[in-house]
Nucleotide exchange factor GrpE (Spongiactinospora rosea), 171 residues
Amino acid sequence: MALLSSVRAQIRQLRYPREFRIRAEAWPGDVLAAFERTLAGESPAGASPEPADAPEDTFPGPSLADVVTSIWRLERRLRRLPGDTRTVTRHLEAAWDTLTQAGVKIQDHLDDPFDPGLSIKVLSYQPAPDLDRERVVETIRPSVYLNDQVIQRGEVIVGTPDPVAKEEAAP
């Protein structure tokens, strides 16, 4: 099987001019031997066994945060689409439910009052004439919690009351 794939790779290279062809690198003998032992089910010499108490279903925090953020963005875009999106929405809701059952909590900060003590990252402040206090006017990334521990801080744009517009509006 490996021979067949290497032959295919060499043939694919023939499609390109000679100066653009990539030559396959030869693997060192010890690496190939270790790889063959691994395929055969033997443990490589000097390798430590995996700890038995390590959880098998752990998902790295940054990767999980990226997945959750992507699903959150998809859900926001689907809400804006006109027409029937029930089939897509159903699968999206199933993904949300699965994440919730796994202990993931997503917090969208849109329209929340802003206080400097919140654990969110403010990307910019934007004056808005219709605000009476500082509020989150746009959420760039939501806050993501896994088992009540922050794995991603939210990134937001905060709207501030525009004092110039208030002075002009007052007679």
